[in-house]
Design goal:
Elements (H helix, E strand, L loop, with lengths): L8 E5 L4 H11 L3 E7 L18 H6 L4 E5 L4 H14 L1 E4 L9 H6 L9 E6 L9 H8 L24 H24 L4 E5 H11 L2 H8 L14 E6 L5 E6 L2 H10 L3 H11 L7 H6 L1 H12 L4 H10 L3 E4 L3 H5 L2 H5 L4 E2 L12 E2 L23 H9 L3 H9 L3 E2 L10
Parallel strand pairs: 1-2, 1-4, 2-3, 4-5, 5-6
Antiparallel strand pairs: 3-12, 7-8, 8-9, 10-11
Length: 417
């Protein structure tokens, strides 16, 4: 937690991954992020995996350092309160449809005099209004059909989905950037902005920005599957004599020279160069084009040495490599977690569980980094926010609570969902 954005307040009305991620990144930099949910929780409030008490570990981690307001978003009064809260704050992140009650126009129209000109970021599915989610836009962009063993036939082999919802996280990060860009513009001109970011455009746009789209059009065909090899450079998984699998990448002259030295592979590499009429130190192209022959050389050597020897030699020679870990192993790895300053002490999580929690991914030298903050209980800040932001009296808030329009903290409640 840094205090770089401690003068910024944002209302977030969202669910699932991309939109909460945008708010999370702002909160980790010090912004006050007020997440508004339905009184029973949003669509992601019971997102798998759940604890025995029904607490979502996904929700708990995507909503750290935020405040929570619970309103009956199915009622007219609850929706009016949500719009008023966003309008008064002047900054909103949402993935609700533009034609919902929380349109940019509705928020702007409800702004009181003196409020900063409305600035909103809205995550959409596709640019034409079609619905989408990470796995569907990934399918559309073509990446799953690039994955899989080399020997799989391109025409008949199945797609390989990635487990990580990467487009959701990339979209969330992009939305946080887009919001801050719009706020910088507002600071300079006083003019707010309506920003719409389609998840599908992030995926297909990344396909273009990476050069992959141009490559396919230039080829006039699809790229072949590469298994675990790195496209356009030298890199692949190998297995040591004692059965440890590890990934190696050599994209620079230093990385390549260090790898050859670590594997003591100068002699077989020289022999291979003479036979093929190439110099592998000339760059990525010869190493990639003759990758199969190189893979055989390095795997033969790796298969004769134990992991402890190989890892020591690669470390000494500045190689780029990592042993494959399961996610459970990664979560318990001292180098990745316990000894990593990214992680701080476990806060008081709503689930009651203690586990490592992240600070901001950015390390700002010379500035104090605070400890990770917990996610709120649903509705934990309803009274506080409605009083401070909308100026409602305790009596008015009490009537809203009695009517079921506002809900208070669900701390202590157990959900068997």
């Amino acid at each position: 937690m840094y205090k770089l954005l401690n003068d910024l307040s944002i209302v977030e009305v969202s669910s699932f991954v991309a939109s909460p991620t945008a708010g999370l990144y702002c909160a980790q930099m010090g912004a006050e992020v007020i997440r508004v949910d339905h009184t029973a929780g949003g669509l992601d409030y019971d997102r798998y995996m759940l604890t025995g008490e029904g607490r979502s570990l996904s929700w708990e981690n995507l909503n750290r350092a935020k405040k929570s307001v619970a309103l009956d978003l199915r009622s007219g009064e609850g929706r009016e309160l949500c719009v008023a809260l966003a309008a008064k704050t002047g900054n909103a992140i949402t993935n609700l449809p533009e034609k919902s009650f929380l349109s940019h126009a509705a928020m702007k129209a409800a702004q009181p005099e003196g409020a900063p000109d409305m600035t909103s970021v809205r995550i959409m599915g596709w640019h034409d209004g079609r619905q989408a989610m990470d796995f569907t836009v990934n399918a559309a962009a073509g990446y799953p059909l690039m994955c899989g063993p080399e020997e799989w036939d391109m025409a008949t082999a199945p797609p390989v989905n990635q487990v990580l919802p990467a487009w959701d996280f990339i979209t969330g990060a992009y939305c946080a950037f887009a919001l801050l860009a719009a706020l910088r513009h507002r600071d300079a001109t006083g003019e707010g902005s309506e920003l719409r970011v389609p998840l599908g455009d992030v995926a297909i746009g990344t396909l273009a920005n990476s050069g992959t789209m141009a490559e396919m059009l230039y080829r006039g065909a699809d790229r072949e599957r590469l298994g675990n090899a790195i496209w356009g450079a030298f890199g692949r998984d190998f297995r040591s004599k004692d059965g440890v699998r590890f990934m190696v990448a050599a994209l620079t002259p230093k990385q390549w020279g260090g790898l050859v030295e670590a594997f003591d592979a100068a002699a077989p590499i020289s022999e291979l160069e003479s036979r093929l009429g190439v110099r592998f130190e000339d760059g990525d192209r010869p190493r990639f084009e003759h990758r199969h022959a190189l893979f055989e050389v390095f795997q033969t050597i790796a298969g004769d040495r134990n992991w402890s020897d190989l890892s020591s030699r690669m470390t000494a020679n500045g190689c780029t490599f990592e042993k494959y870990r399961t996610a459970y192993e990664a979560a318990r790895d001292p180098q990745l977690v316990t000894d990593n300053p990214l992680f701080g002490p476990s806060p008081a999580n709503p689930s009651g569980l203690d586990y490592p929690a992240t600070r901001s991914f950015a390390n700002v030298p010379g500035r104090e980094v605070g400890d990770p903050a917990p996610a709120p209980f649903l509705g934990q800040h309803s009274e506080e926010v409605l009083a401070e932001r909308l100026g409602l009296s305790s009596g008015a808030i009490g009537k809203l609570i009695d009517a079921g329009t506002v809900a208070l903290s669900d701390e202590g409640k157990h959900y068997n969902r």
